[in-house]
Design goal:
CATH architecture of the largest domain: 2-Layer Sandwich
Order of helices and strands: HHHHHHHHHEHEHEEHEEEHHEEEHHHHH
Number of helices: 19
Strand order of the largest sheet: 2-4-7-6-5
Number of strands: 10
Number of domains: 5
Radius of gyration: 23 Å
CATH class of the largest domain: Alpha Beta
CATH topology of the largest domain: Beta Polymerase, domain 2
Strand content: 5-15%
Length: about 400
DNA sequence: GCCGTTTTCGGCCCGACTGTTTTCAGTCG
């Protein structure tokens, strides 16, 4: 049974998507996306909160709180039902196709009545998109390729699979004479449980030879995009790898940007804006004069924003910014902290005791750190609900990544 | 719709790349 926060998060995200498709104010769309994320990561169960408690959640105001309250009571809210009636669910599903955003999805529906991925494929086959503004031959090809990708099950892979690929790419590009520094970034550096694509960052004196070497790797199935500083490929295993090349003097800013998450980046950039600064992958700048302030290390960037360095595993905009501002960032487990491995089962699978009893027992025995390596790690993660468990969740994630690499 | 070191209105992250719309909108991360 998913926790109420996740149910509400999904409803608000759906509302944001449908608002975007139906041409709603982009800032309102973003507001609901932010509120959805904020609720998903909030430490307290939203079903236990009253209106005032809901409005205390960051990015949740009176209007959103009202919708959340209605959703908790009835399972949905009226404004969402209105949009569901206006936009078929298949139109939203079409946005899962790479290259199709809300504008193009809505255009296909409004002008051609296409309301599902299957109908879209059939329409392209029948040549119905010919002459439609914004849809040329190349776009049609890309959509068909995107549909094939969507229909392949399990686009995301476990972290150990992505890590192996990343280390292979790093091994091949790291030896080039132009390469000064190289690292994996993105969700891989944040140690997410599953990885959608692999992000590689290179600091190089000249980007072109690095790009060329990357696009020529033996396991490249297709070059998706290729520019002066950024190239994306898809491997024959079906995983996308993005390469970004920067100059060595902006390594820290680029690594901070390329590590994400997107939500964390938006928060740090907002902090920069409020301080009269501008943050991008090229550095932290004075907004007015455009003068570069810092870019060389991540530590400098965070420090100039008034924050301590935040570990990548925490960068999800799930309270880490606030914790950093309060000086209350958690101490994360290191490999040297691991003394052993205890395998146990909870009643999520074939054990007898519930997760909560396992945790209480571990605490009662004085274990500072512990990982439950059940056969159902995702179910376990979903049950990590209370505020203190956020820290624990990250510890488990780090432990899992250690296991994956050993 | 939310929010405040520019606080009750005005702004909301930033840049790369693609395809197509001859100058830029849409999408992505």
């Amino acid at each position: 049974m998913p926790r109420s926060n996740e149910v509400v998060q999904a409803l608000l995200q759906e509302y944001a998507d449908l608002l975007a498709i139906s041409g709603g104010d982009p800032f309102r769309v973003r507001t609901y996306e932010k509120a959805a994320r904020s609720i998903g990561g909030y430490h307290a169960e939203v079903s236990s909160l009253d209106q005032k408690g809901l409005e205390a959640i960051p990015s949740v105001g009176k209007s959103t709180a009202g919708k959340v309250e209605e959703a908790l009571r009835t399972g949905t809210f009226a404004a969402l039902e209105d949009l569901r009636a206006a936009v078929p669910s298949g139109v939203r599903q079409m946005m899962a196709i790479s290259g199709l955003g809300p504008k193009k999805a809505m255009l296909l529906y409004r002008d051609l009545g296409i309301s599902s991925v299957e109908e879209l494929a059939a329409a392209i086959d029948a040549g119905r998109l010919k002459g439609l503004r914004g849809f040329g031959d190349r776009t049609e090809e890309n959509i068909l390729r995107g549909i094939a990708l969507v229909q392949e099950s399990g686009a995301r892979v476990q972290i150990n699979v992505a890590m192996e690929l990343a280390e292979d790419v790093i091994g091949r590009l790291g030896g080039l004479k132009e390469t000064r520094q190289i690292a994996y970034a993105g969700s891989l550096r944040r140690m997410a449980e599953t990885i959608g694509d692999v992000d590689i960052l290179v600091a190089a004196t000249k980007p072109a030879p690095v790009m060329e070497a990357f696009a020529s790797l033996p396991n490249v199935e297709r070059v998706i995009a290729r520019g002066e500083t950024k190239t994306s490929i898809r491997t024959i295993q079906g995983l996308q790898v993005d390469l970004r090349v920067v100059t060595p003097d902006v390594w820290g800013a680029a690594l901070q940007y390329f590590t994400g998450s997107k939500a964390h980046n938006i928060r740090t950039r907002e902090i920069a804006v409020r301080k009269g600064l501008k943050l991008s992958e090229y550095g932290l700048f004075d907004a007015k004069s455009g003068e570069l302030i810092v870019a060389r290390t991540e530590e400098e960037v965070y420090e100039r924003l008034g924050l301590p360095w935040i570990a990548p595993t925490l960068r999800e905009d799930r309270g880490e910014i606030e914790a950093a501002l309060r000086g209350e960032l958690p101490t994360l487990v290191q490999e040297k902290d691991i003394k052993g491995d205890l395998h146990t089962h909870t009643n999520l699978t074939d054990g007898l005791a519930p997760l909560e009893e396992m945790i209480a027992a571990a605490r009662g025995r004085g274990y500072a750190y512990y990982a439950v390596t059940d056969h159902a790690p995702n179910l376990y993660m979903q049950r990590m609900t209370d505020a203190k468990m956020l820290t624990q969740r990250k510890r488990v994630r780090q432990l899992c990544s250690c296991t994956a690499r050993s």
